[in-house]
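Section 3.1: Structural characterization of target chains.
Under the original work plan, the team committed to producing a structural model for every single-chain target entering the pipeline before any wet-lab resources were allocated. The record below documents one such target. The sequence was received from the expression subgroup and is listed exactly as submitted; it comprises 120 residues.
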Amino acid sequence: MKKQKGLSLVAMIIVGVLLALVLLVGAKVLPTVTEYYSIKQSVLSVVKDPSLKGATVADLRKAFSKHAEIQSIKSITPVDLEISKDGGEVVIGFSYSSKVPLFANVSLLIDFQGSYSAND
């Protein structure tokens, strides 16, 4: 007799449940990660804007505020930005945590951070 190959019904159910769990976590985490990349892009736009070369901290926060409004960024505000100078160049950093509810009382806590200058 030849050996049978393939998955049994129980194995297929287990694989299906695991796949569904991975898809559930991915679907819940995707908006949070997308917002992080929007924040990153907004900060880079502000840092690399040639019209803001000699701008004050208030001007930089205002510019980020405009980007945040357009991108619908809710996780951080302009006040949350850490703005400093390093070697005459403006460096803008940020850090925040995002809590993503998965199911029942299970949540995923993700810490995001970034620091960007005109050279990045």
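Residues 9-117 form one domain.
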